[in-house]
Amino acid sequence: MSALAVPTTTTEHTDRGPLDKHELAAVIARDIPAGAYVNLGIGQPTLVADHLPQGSGVVLHTENGMLNMGPAATGDDIDPDLTNAGKVPVTELPGAAYFHHADSFAMMRGGHLDVCVLGAYQVAASGDLANWHTGAPDAIPAVGGAMDLAIGAKDVLVMMTLFAKDGSSKLVPACTYPLTGVGCVSRVYTDFGVFAVGSSAEGDPGVVSVLETYGASVDELSARMDVELRPL
Amino acid sequence: MSALAVPTTTTEHTDRGPLDKHELAAVIARDIPAGAYVNLGIGQPTLVADHLPQGSGVVLHTENGMLNMGPAATGDDIDPDLTNAGKVPVTELPGAAYFHHADSFAMMRGGHLDVCVLGAYQVAASGDLANWHTGAPDAIPAVGGAMDLAIGAKDVLVMMTLFAKDGSSKLVPACTYPLTGVGCVSRVYTDFGVFAVGSSAEGDPGVVSVLETYGASVDELSARMDVELRPL
Amino acid sequence: MTTIHSDPLEAVAGIADGATVLVGGFGMAGMPVTLIDALIASGASDLTVVSNNAGNGDTGLAALLAAGRVRKVVCSFPRQADSYVFDGLYRSGDLELEVVPQGNLAERMRAAGAGIGAFFCPTGVGTPLAEGKETREIDGRTYVLEYPIKGDVALIGAEAGDAMGNLVYRKTARNFGPVMATAATTTIAEVRRVVAVGDLDPEAVVTPGIFVDRILDLSAAPADVADAESPTSQEVSA
Amino acid sequence: MTTIHSDPLEAVAGIADGATVLVGGFGMAGMPVTLIDALIASGASDLTVVSNNAGNGDTGLAALLAAGRVRKVVCSFPRQADSYVFDGLYRSGDLELEVVPQGNLAERMRAAGAGIGAFFCPTGVGTPLAEGKETREIDGRTYVLEYPIKGDVALIGAEAGDAMGNLVYRKTARNFGPVMATAATTTIAEVRRVVAVGDLDPEAVVTPGIFVDRILDLSAAPADVADAESPTSQEVSA
Q1: Per-residue pLDDT tens for B147-189?
Q2: What is the DSSP string of D113-170?
Q3: I need a labelling partner for C72 at 20 to 30 A (CA). Which of A81, C63, C197, D205 fits?
Q4: Which of A64, A68, A69, A179 to mutate to test the interface with C (most CBs of C within 10 A)?
Q5: What's the CATH fold of domain D3-100+149-227?
Q6: What's the domain count of chain B?
């Protein structure tokens, strides 16, 4: 079902990286197939839209009920009735369509979207995703559409920094935070590299395939991570 | 949930009856509450529409995807894209709405219609309905929307002759034909009388309440039927 | 039968204490602000509110919560930057919370409106929100059994309506309105304008009138609920 | 990505032997006549056809059946006054039949399109069509467990479409089209006219383009499929 191109060999970019969020968004945009139906999660994933090439034919879905969403609205174009899932005012492109929430989430759950890009606290080698709750005992739980998005596309891509502020890897053998979805992530895009996980990874279960690295070698990354990395 | 008026006493009309199908349609139309949302099944039930008073506010639903259906189309008004569930060309009244099949049957199954009028082979005292199949071994089964309609309104009314051609009553202690729905009928309108069945009947389960008779007394009908009749 | 109202208090009259109230809107888009204010003014209490969020700032749903009228909130995303009213009541134990994934919230209301008894849903499998729920593997995939969410009342916002009860929405303000309209015993919609029967294109009606019991015509409503007359004794079946 | 075609054979190219084909229409309203003729011309066989009826007279679905291309029919109402082609094949044992209540047919396809694994449905409880199926009592009512019906291909008829794949329908010809479009891996729509992107009101789009893979523009198609060129090698994923 995946429409993502898979490189034949791992590329270690020693000349650039780690990537900033805009560079990372550009890498993700590069990998999104032309004409794909794509949902960009709240926050950094929305940056991906800025890097889609002219004429890519990519159609953006927002789960609050719209296909063919345009860029953020500014000035007089701001319309309180037209927002994205982050409640940010957006615009409408020609050929747009509106629908209600049950239809919109049916569209996701039914596997009609090609790509969804999400942030994450942790991703496991198995493709498990944790991005809705830190598990802190005093936190008020709030899930929004995270669990729906996690299972709502043929390819779920995660966009995150590879390491947490404490230096620990967020790509882990098993998530310690509460899960958002099980085995749902196919690829993880980070400042230090791009990884295939879960059923997208080649070889043994629990081993992560490294597609590209940025500013570090596979060996250097392996030394900082508990999960087993394997080049293509 | 029923919005049907219930008479306080049984009326035996000895001056008229048995009713022909047009007179029977008029009796049903009389009992449909003003402003009700109504589905009229294929065949004789469609006659009921001709007897709804002007300004009744009754809104007709057709399960192939329309509310506020108008009368049958004739001449230049015939439009192949606009038919009722019997595939008969119909018209559209102001304030109509179209929707697809899943939405249309969700509307029925969800209990939003007030009244549905159906034909029947047999109705049991319990409200069981048999109207889709005679059980003949060589018959090709074909159910259409019959089972959906049977459970698809707050009140399911049956319109039928009380007696089959062989003289046996079609209002029975238990249906011998394959069922369309269990306990779903609330009232049975026939040429010889109007009966409350199932949970609409008063008193013991399995006993039918007689609301009105036409051209015969309750006692005369009782003598011809196996089901126990009880006046109000 | 749909009735048209210009008095917000009359539009919400009869909402019983203890009722489950579905409240439309996603952020401010589609939020039935005037109906919520009228609900506060009506005095109904011990409510269960089903909505995507749990109120922002001090108005709307937040004001309903602050007035102590709500026993339980069912929503997907209560915690927001300015959800301090909810946060305080939740932390003090004065408010019960059921968190439901956004799509499940919509689909469970859709099931209520469509007469579906329960459905096997892949969302949330293996997560804390599916704990204790029945699961089943179907065709190699695991699903959680989810039940309908039915409302006694739905309060929704729409763009325009007619005397048949037909509604159209505007852009992403459509969101939960059409689903909630099907899931409640009594649906009350506030609309920016009421149009003549026949003015809405039958092909473009989003919510057919069968789902709509009362329409509040905002173009005819007083600017402030406090200016409105007292409610009639109109009843809502619950 | 939606492609626009003027050649009916090209529009149906790649439908594999053994495919499950959802065919829209209720009576003639919404029936994709040109696509069915093209399917016959394409030679695909051993098909399972899911449609409300099983063909009338000698054309359309009846012609597909008569050509011996169909192994199984899933429908609500096969028996009609002029369904003699179906009747003969069924009685001779050359055609398998699954009869499904009309609303269940629609809801089971809706479930396929919406990613629902199965659902508890009150329709048909206690009838022969529920025999052998799992039942459950929920809140005092009995339900039957029903499973999705997914198609490899959907053939539907619509009024107009654009290059984004957005579709609108006309009156009761809408019927099964929007549901089937969601339930198939590949959806092919014949439309009376193709309009420019932007000409369809985004509020009134019934089937968003994400569900539509190919559009056959009837206004540009040859009057007879036999006049069309031979199909290209375009593939349909099944």
Answers
A1: 999 999 999 999 999 999 999 999 999 999 999 999 999 999 9
A2: HHT--EEEE-TTTTSGGGTTS-EEEETTEEEEEE----EEEEEEEEEEE-TT--EE--
A3: A81
A4: A64
A5: Glutaconate Coenzyme A-transferase (3.40.1080)
A6: 1
